[in-house]
Write a structure and sequence with these properties.
One of its GO terms (molecular function) is DNA-binding transcription factor activity, RNA polymerase II-specific. It comes from Xylaria arbuscula. Helices cover 45% and strands 2% of the residues. The chain contains 21 helices and six strands. Strands 1-2 form a two-stranded antiparallel ribbon. The protein has a two-stranded antiparallel ribbon with strand order 3-4. α10 packs antiparallel against α11, α16 runs antiparallel to α17 and α20 crosses α21.
Length: 648
Amino acid sequence: MTHRDHHGSHHARNGSSDHPNYDIAGGQLSKRFGHDPLIYPDEGLIQRTFNNYFRHVHHVPVFSFLHRASLMQRYHAGMMDRALLLALVGVTSLLTDLGPGMREYGARCIDECQSMVLQDLENPSTIKIQALVLVMKHRILSRRFTSAFMLAAMAARFAYALRLNYENPTLCFLARESRRRLMWAFLTIDSGVNGGQADFTLVSPDSLHIQLPCNERNFEFDLPQVTGHLRPLPSQPFPDDVGSLALHVRLLWMRSRVSYCTKNVLNMPEAEVAQLPQLIKVLSQELDTFNDHLPASFKFSESNLQLRAYSPRLCVYIMIHVWWRQCHCDLYRIVLSGLKEALPKSSVSRLEPQFVSYCTRQCFEHAIAMVEIFRLVLALDGGLPVTDLDLPVCAYQCARMLYYAYQTNKGELRLTADQVVEHANRCLQIARSMNHVPAGASIVADLEKLIARGLTSGGNPGSPDNHEVAGGAAVSQPPMTRQIPTHNQHIHLLDEETPIVAVPSPSANMSSPGVNASNGVVMTPMSAATTPGPLQHRRDPSFSDLAVTDPNLSRPNLPPVVPPDGLDNNNAFEGAMDGFDFALESYNNTGVDSASWFSQDFLNADFTSMPVCHVIYAAFDIKLPINTGASYGFTQRDELRDHREAAT
């Protein structure tokens, strides 16, 4: 914890240097590795960080868990957690313009924040999880995917130890809502990081016994709202006051189901491929039901888009509809032979030609509809807001589907080369909105390669550098054949600290927010960009004359500070520093028996003989028609029930 002196600087309330973790903490660690100690952010930088974060970054769904009034109240009371503050500086400096040299400084803040959390693992807290989520997103945007992948496991352990997956009725509404948003943000990160692989899943949706996020107005003004839960799927239209963040969470959960399905289908024996049409039908109906249940104000239309042109809700509105289209493309491309995400030709040949043709057309039509969204977005006067990496990833995949359609079925789809190039360039304009971060620059570079060679016979979009979402991360991969990880294979993870294309130097001014549709330049919340150059380790001249560091920055595990009277009443940080005990008592009085940690009952289940399609149906709890006479679907209800019980 910190307090501010009369100069506005933050210091520990306990200035002693005999803390047990002091000798191995962040500042001292920097000295051991030959780096200058990190200079603590000054008051001006802190205020710019707060302003830019809540003006440009907070509306991105994964960053919406902080409550501005509560954060500022805590800051002015001298109780701002140092790790969280450093994480905010790091993320905000990467996504917006905080001044010359701030990107490199922000990266050092992220390193320092991570070091502080790692040196204090014995004291998990909600604030540490908030800081870790920000660090993970910074790592992903910086193409350091392995770091984010590993940090996610620690954040998950913290979250479950603190029982954030349960409602805590003893807290005020703001604190409960902030914790809910934090867990839902972590779920969306995890659903991307695991890539549909059950072995990598850290946060199961079934384990989140919490409400969906409320709407932004209620969160901002402390107006309690009952929103319902993720499951079961609603059978009635969403209420008019549904929050856009809740819709986004629900849609990304549906995308994770699609991803899990398609990954497991690739392991499906050819004899079971006949079950695929029914599985695709069930998932597509879920997606259609989601869209049908949207309130009129959330439906996609040019009018609804323009009404949000200057609203902080523009980003999530765009992503809801882009993701809805992308989910369909992900689902239907499973039968598009030649794509690395598709079944082999021998399996596709077992399906009815009409079904394969239907999937091909559906994938193409949803890609075209996504391009139309991009066209309308680029025409907005206010330009593109700050977005997550999801948007350029979807733009890349959209262009890839269009080139595939042109190369394999241009006659039937009446698709010309000029149309494909025009659509792909529109996708490129959208992708350039994140060109100022290393992962975004990688996507732009690969999309430019695809456009340059996509119309040639050697430019098969099924094999070029492919981008898949990993918690918002896009991984640039070399051409490869379809490979499905098995129990004896390892997933290769590679940190890309040096981008494959030139990106702006951290000491250079960055591009400004907005978009110019006429010349294809997409504006972001950065100042006018200079000529891109290689990343260099240079310090901001404004910091060079500062000779002192915060001597207490490296001691994160300080005694708790007693808040001023009334500070934690209706404050989103209520209980944020509370730890946990090993009884692991949850708020509905269901504890965990430590003896169960050593139980081997789970080894008795025999999954090896279960058909892959049965596992998928059991995991999704999909209800299929019985004795319908169709060529696919189960005909024995007892068999399906038994497999569900075995899977659980």
